[in-house]
Structure formats: C-alpha cells, structure tokens
Amino acid sequence: MSDVKKVVLAYSGGLDTSVIVRWLIETFNCEVVCFAADVGQKEELTGLREKALNTGASKCYIEDLTEEFVRDFVFPALRANAIYEGTYLLGTSLARPLIAKRQVEIARMENADAVCHGATGKGNDQVRFEMTFMALEPNIRIISPWKDDRWTLTSRDAMIDYAEKYRIPITISKKKPYSEDRNLLHISHEGGILEDPWAEAPENIFVLTKSPENAPDKPTYVEIDFEEGNPVAVDGTRMSPAKLLDHLNIVAGANGIGRVDMVENRFVGMKSRGVYETPGGTVLWAAHRAVESLTVDREVMLLRDGLTPKIAQLMYNGFWYAPEMEVLQKFVDESQKDVTGTARMKLYKGNCIVAGRKSPHSLYSEEFATFDKDAVYDQKDATGFIRLNALRMRIRALLNK
Predict the structure, then answer these.
(1) Confidence of residue 174 (pLDDT cuts 50, 70, 90)
(2) Catalytic position from the list 12, 16, 22, 49
(3) Which residue of the set 22, 49, 79, 96 is catalytic?
(4) Which of 176, 195, 213 is the last residue of a domain?
(5) Active-site hit among 12, 18, 49, 125
(6) Which of 114, 144, 176 is the last residue in one of the domains?
(7) Of the chain's two ends, which shows fewer C-beta atoms within 10 Å, N or C?
C-alpha cells in the first residue's frame, strides 16, 4: 500500500467517513477523492462537499442516483418479493452495490490506485462493498481501515475524540451514539441502547414514521398500478420510480406504516439488533403480492416463493453481481410478465391492508370460484381427483396393516 497515491472514498459525512478522510491522508500521504451517492437521504447531503474539502479531500463527487437505485435495485427486489428472514426489506443491502459500482467507475475516471469504505469488520456492508469492487474491478486495491493494523480508532468514543482533535464537524455525540443509514427505501437505527434487544426503541429515534398511536383515526386508501411487476402509478398518477417511492413514504409514514424491530443474522456470523422504518416499501411489497395473487400461476408462484429466501439472502450478503443472481433474476422477471394490475391498499394506524385488487390478466374466475350454483364445474370430478392423489397413502396404509 506504500505506493497508493489517490484513493476514492465512499463518503457519507458521518462519523466514520469524516474521520477516515484525515486518517487516509496521515497514513498514506495520498490524495483523497470523496464520493457521496444521493440515494434519497434528503437533507444529509447539505454542506457535504464543503465538509469533505475542509477535512482534507481534494474533490467530492455528489451524484443523484435515486432513480437508478429504485428502478434497478429496489424494484428487482420487489419483483422477487425479497424479504430477509421474513422481516427485513433490505434497505441498506440494496443501496451498497449501487454505491460501490459508481465508486469503481469514479476510480477509473480519476485513475485512482485504490477504493476505500468505512464499514467495520463486524458488519455486512464491508462484504457488500468489497464483493462489488472485486466483481467489477478484480485488481482494484481495497482499503478497509477497520481491518487495517494501523487503525487505532476502535470505538465510537475514540473516533469522536479524534474528530474533536482535528476539528472535524460531526453530528453524533457520546450521549446519543445511534448509527443511522437512510435512503429512499428506509432508514435504519443501530447502536446505543438499541444494542440491548430487550430495550424498547425510544420514540425519538424515528424519522420517517409517525407512531401508530398518533396516526390518523381514519384510514387512508391508496391505489397502486403495476406493469410487469413494477409499480408505475399511485391513485392514477404516473410517477418515476424514485418519485413514486418518495410519495408513498410520506403517505404511509403518516399512517405509522413500516416500523420493524428485529434481531437478524449478519453474514459474518453474529446476531445484531436493528430498528428499521420502511413505510413506502411496506405498502409496495403488500400491493405487489396482491396483484400477483390474481395473475401468477400456482406452480410458478410456488417456484418463485421457494427461491425468494435465497434471493433475499444473496442480496443481504452482497452477492448482487454474482452469476447465480443473474440467473435467478431472469427467472423472476419471466414470472412477472403478467403482473399488471391495481391494488387498493388501506393504511390505518400501522396496518397495511389489501382492500381490493384487479388485473386485465387475472386468472381468477368468479364462475369457477363461486359457492352458488354454476355450470362450468362438475363437483363430482373432485372424487376421482382426490382418490388418485390419495392412492399412494392408501397403499401405504394397506401394507402397514
């Protein structure tokens, strides 16, 4: 690493990366180029370029990746109904491969020797960043301070002291050491009191969602239109992917939708507790499933649902650019060709309820499904159907006797 001259750092302006700018300069005597991806973190980007330059960076790229994030990362996860461990809608997991991809592209533009991230050696983000770096630029040098022997800032308190020493402005304090990661899909909260899985998350940490107790006393209805598995309109108004998700975040958040408190299994092997707010995503996942229930064949649905946990695991663990992900996504996309229609959702005090669904490709037939008299289904046919399906069990029972 002694010949490192220029490094592109994935920069958020938070505690870790603010400190890392100065640490890279001191450790490698190199030029630091910061890259901040706008994936929907809103006001957090205000003043970021000035902060990076004042900390010692030579440049700071700030790029709006919101549309690409939702279109090419969130929506593919939605089409797969990907939910990690049955609970987590993968907010952070989906943003990291996009950020790392663009970071590699900037490194090429800048003729940089290395890329750097601020993820710790305990978490998932280190894997997501580095797997993407290696998949897209296999010979790139990777600097991971938390795994470097020269890194001595092994606690948040130590980093805060370091920031104070070099007068690096930070927003975190020793009294409120919560770690937050925000994008258009969610915001996550970790650390501090949240490291105790028995402690209830304090109300003051929540950003995107109103508490269900304080949500409106009347339900809000929204209608979401889908085309081939992708949401395209809300209440009849077509929107771009990022604008649609942003709109639903506001509507769903006001109704207390999307709070999740879970203990999850990190890829590296430990369990961790995270509190997530995913208001718009929660509505989209439920609405998408409602349209699928009308339009996807039973056996195709069974196959896709069997693959969903694996797809979610691959996304969570950082294998976005792995060959198996390409194959699985092609299968998912094929299954979505008829997932076109509308779901009507009822949002009420933290509850996201399907109130109706319709589709021009609906496989649902009222003539066949009715409990009233019909002329299209002979109920006597079910006798042979059941006897044939039960044949192997009857033979087994007879032999056991």
Answers:
(1) low
(2) 16
(3) 96
(4) 176
(5) 125
(6) 176
(7) C
Asked if 250 and 169 sit in the same domain, the reply is no
For residues 79-93, average pLDDT = 98
16 is catalytic: yes
**pTM score over 0.90:** yes
Is 152 within the bounds of a domain? yes
Q: Residues 12, 18, 93, 179: which is the catalytic one?
A: 179
Residue at 85 is within a domain: yes
The verdict on 156 and 282 lying in the same domain is no
pLDDT > 80? residue 11: yes
pLDDT at 176 over 70: no
Q: How many domains does the chain have?
A: 2
Residue of 19, 21, 57 lying closest to 163 (CA atoms)? 19
Cross-sheet strand order for the sheet of 230-234: 237-238, 230-234, 220-227, 341-348, 351-358
CATH code of 142's domain: 3.40.50.620
The question of whether 293 is a catalytic residue gets the answer: no
Using 50, 70 and 90 to split pLDDT, how confident is the model at 249? very high
273 is an active site residue: no
Please indicate whether residue 125 is annotated as part of the active site. Answer: yes
Domain that holds residue 110: 6-176
